[in-house]
Amino acid sequence: MATRILEALNGQRTATPPVWFMRQAGRSLPEYKKVREGIKMLDSCLMPELAAEITLQPVRRHNVDAAIFFSDIMVPLRLAGVDVDIAPGVGPVLGSPVRCPEDVKELPTAIFDDASRITEAIQLIRTELPANKTLLGFAGAPFTLAAYMVEGRPSKDHLRARALMHSDPATWDALLSWCATVSNQFLHVQIEAGAQGIQLFDSWAGSLSRATYKKYVLPYSRRTLEDITVPRIHFGTYTNQFLDLMADEVDAVGVDHRTPLNEAARLVPDTVLQGNIDPALLFADQDTLHAHALDVVRRGLAAPAHIVNLGHGVPPTTDPGVLTDLVAFLHDIEIDKLEAGE
Ligand code: CP3
Is 2 within 8 Å of 197 (Cβ atoms)? Predict the structure, then answer.
């Protein structure tokens, strides 16, 4: 069945805008907090029934058009045997950061021993997900993964990672190749189990110049995506300077809230766009949020097709009722009428 999200990814306009939210599964939902109580983040990702339940929670509550698989970009590292944890309120933390040629050589092989818990979770989701909804899988892009691996923990500017690519390109190549293999494999596991589309998250790529992105990052993201046969969305933040490179060889590109979609459509003509409601406006009054969402949809008409999303993830303190209302508001917009200027 062609779902609305798959139609849009195929470049077709849908009668009303399709919508899902990055980080829709998680901390903004009380039912999430309840089922996660006492269970560590990465452990929860490897408990198939729990991961399936958390994936479905926002679909049930908000009526979004896509479920995004509940997991994390660090899960494939854990599956490959890397000592990694997600510390509450901090983020990904590695037992030992990867900073020199020896560290890269000591990484476990990039092949998973056993990814059956991912397969099982995805299969469970597909049996319960209504046929008009789409299950999206995802992975972290090699640069964003490497930024965590080199720093050993979250960082603002990724200084060590950005220094390494220039000072030791051979080690950088080995590390990014390892990350590309791991993320590519994570995508394949999800797709073989039933994911119908995927998103590659390069959340921190915006810290790079165009030339640096092109030389040290893009080749590895391409490698992660090259043999993927389901529709592919490529997302990053602060990516204006190389949005065209990100859009190359994928089906859609995600745009953060800093670039109006009509401007993005000029940068990447003929490309399906995803985005870009400013997450801050989830905290504004309803009229202000609705006006902003309508403006986003209007600007999205400049692209061949458009999937509504936020510019980045749902903030943890978001009132879930605001998201439910926003989905209903968007589903009431008739694209034909909007195009006719009504
Ligand atoms: O989008 C979804 O709802 C699906 C699940 C999902 C999670 N992480 C769950 C999660 C997805 C797609 C991700 C991707 C991810 N993970 C990214 C790329 C997207 C982005 O936000 O830019 C990144 C950079 C990570 C790494 C990561 N994992 C961070 C920075 C954090 C936050 C740390 C914190 O507590 O502030 C995590 C943890 C994480 N991943 C949580 C969830 C629901 C929160 C953990 C918790 O509930 O305890």
Answer: no
Cα(218)–Cα(245) distance, rounded to whole angstroms? 8
Q: How far is CA 77 from CA 165, 189, 295, in A?
A: 20, 14, 40
The 10 Å Cβ neighbour count of residue 196 is 22
Task: Name the residue with the closest Cα to ligand 1, atom 30.
Answer: 91
pLDDT, position 237: 95
- What b-and-e string marks burial along 210-227, b requiring 16 or more CB atoms within 10 Å of the CB? eebbeebbbebbebbbee
Task: List, for the chain, all residue ranges whose pLDDT scores fall below the cut of 50.
Answer: none
pLDDT score, position 342: 72
pLDDT tens-digit map of 123-147 = 999 999 999 999 999 999 999 999 9
**Pocket perturbation via mutation, ligand 1, pick of 33, 43, 86, 237 by most ligand atoms within 8 A of CB:** 86
